């Protein structure tokens, strides 16, 4: 045994101290270096490919929900509820536009939040724990950071599909008076990703789900949806409740989307703040999620 | 010429104060089938994860295919096939899709992966299950699919962590047969097991690991020769009496091991020892003469039984 | 192998004492198990369920209420917006709770935990299991409803003493949804199919006179909404909390009585087919 060990250490020393000296390195080492190139560059995309394939199994749900729920919300709130709101305060008195026009961009941004809260919770739990496909990817040449990137990438695509469908229906309902309205789609995706990246990072830290995700839905997602200036202007709330809106990515996203869909009048600095807030939140969540992926998969 | 595929020297992995792997050294040559044998919690899986370049070592040197896993993780993993202890097949995908998707993780072209997927389904004897859901497979089938998946990148080294744990005897034999074929084709195997028969079947050479340290190294036959006798006589006198009788057996056989339920007598000739016992007026309830196995090696080395 | 067991069991017990094989009068045992399981998993999640309708009430009733002002109900009464939606939210909460408990929860236990198989191999019959699960869901629903009504009282949204009857009304609604939900779930096989339940719930939630009177809709849509169960629940509870009570409300009660009966019949039938035949 000791003999084997001695001969080994010599051979190992050369190869592993200077493995990138490819001329000197043995064929197997060179083969490995070559085979690592693609996964290093495209790993995140391979992960996204996997997510798309999984999403394909519930395409039906995505499409029906993607068309059905905007239709329902736009009709119920933008038409039904609008009848009594406009009847009560006049046709152009919420922000100077009809209730439909007021509420539609909020519903659009909420739709992106909904996608985020579906795709960044249970699928993440599944990948780390329940059906640990993430460790499978990591056992292949994918790096943990690439797994986080790939998931974000795939969800961004799904979000884009959903919000484009939603926006098309908004046009049908006549809820987009302004020509810059299409930018609201980008705003909605950014909003969904800003919230989603933080949510993904949080979910990644969970070793087990003993109801934390249900609590997030109840105490974060739902209040956020209700109190972010979505169904009524934030200013209607008492002053002490308004900070809920300021920290909510949905409020920033909704206000920003309103600027584009109907020219909601706000100072330019506020518009800049909205964008900066959302981008910053996304960046923080993303970096955090990548770190946890490394920590968790490389234990 | 044949440079080792894996070289580990004084490998250490600590979690806080606990050393899961505590200074392990070994080498695996190309085409060799090398085993880590030990009870649960011996540090085998942790070693496998470090060799698999998914866990960072605390200290020591490690080179796989001449590369340091801390710096060249993706490069090393591109050459490995990994069969983890718990199947992590993708239950959201069908059987064949599992192979297709996994092949893509290596950056292999779709067409190539599709061809390999069909070959591997045949190899794993799952040709007619391509469209089945993963959850509908039996335990043995899932294991074979996991092995097929590990082969999708045509790896130089296959890492198998407890490959047959939890399978019924028939499923184990089918699996061993498949692994034997791979061995014949020259694939390097590194496997952990706590089954003696598995180690004896599959390993050219092995190390016995306990509490993060290597206790012995050699071929299965050499280990048995060095740490045990040719035959073992197992006698039972009933749970209450074994300890008392053991005193009276002093001098019989080369060596005695007294276990709660039986006494093991190590000897070149088990039948002869049994005759000596009965002629001394002791009558065991049952007796059995068998050949020594790695189980006996482990008992000798650690004073503990392997399967607890 | 299991075929043999089934064949032995079925003829011996079923034709001789059919009622017994369905119901052993021991739904309590099933409730007890459920209660222990809730306690040992996460009671905080259970408690948190109470806040959902409260959030809606605060946001819509108070926030949106400042935009909407007063609303005219079905019976011609003019009430503040918060008093209009509060009873609807109560009915919706009863529906959501009951549907969750009787669909996702039951589906999981049936398909994955194989809990019912174990229960039905004891002296319990399918009706014990169905009733036990539903009654436990009702108990939970009753707790939420009491909490919500106290909040309504504090905000001055109970406009009449009739509001006391809203509690039994909520239980009736929950019973109806739970028994129908469980019946439907027992026919489901995959998670994808379960998703369709949400597709039915969402429009019911949005359209059933929850946030505004259905008179804003065209006639044909009103008829469709009135055929669906939630509208009956909302109208029943709203009638009681606003004090606009009349004999016609008994139609709503009848609707739910039928729903309960139909649900129980199908659930029992299906559980028997799945596990005993």
From TrEMBL, chain A:
TM segment ranges: 61-85, 97-116, 151-176, 182-203, 215-241, 268-289
InterPro entries: ABC2_TM (IPR013525), ABC2_TM_bact-type (IPR047817), ABC_2_transport (IPR000412), Nod_factor_ABC_transporter (IPR051784)
Domain ABC transmembrane type-2 span(s) in chain numbering: 61-292
Entry keywords, A to Z: Antibiotic resistance, Cell membrane, Membrane, Transmembrane, Transmembrane helix, Transport
Residue runs in coiled coils: none
Cross-referenced PROSITE patterns: ABC_TM2
Membrane topology type: Multi-pass membrane protein
Compartment(s) where it occurs, according to its Swiss-Prot or TrEMBL record: Cell membrane; Membrane
Keyword Transmembrane recorded: yes
Superkingdom, taxonomy of origin: Bacteria
Predominant subcellular localization, coarse grouping: membrane
Span list, region Disordered: 1-25
PANTHER family linked to this entry: NODULATION PROTEIN J (PTHR43229)
Protein family membership: Belongs to the ABC-2 integral membrane protein family.
Protein name: Transport permease protein
TrEMBL record, chain C:
Keyword set, alphabetical order: Antibiotic resistance, Cell membrane, Membrane, Transmembrane, Transmembrane helix, Transport
TM regions (residue ranges): 43-66, 78-99, 159-184, 196-214, 249-267
Localization: Cell membrane; Membrane
Topology term for the membrane: Multi-pass membrane protein
Residue ranges constituting the ABC transmembrane type-2 domain according to the UniProt record: 44-274
Keyword Chaperone in record: no
Entry's family note: Belongs to the ABC-2 integral membrane protein family.
Name the UniProt record assigns to this protein: Transport permease protein
Organism (species): Agromyces humatus
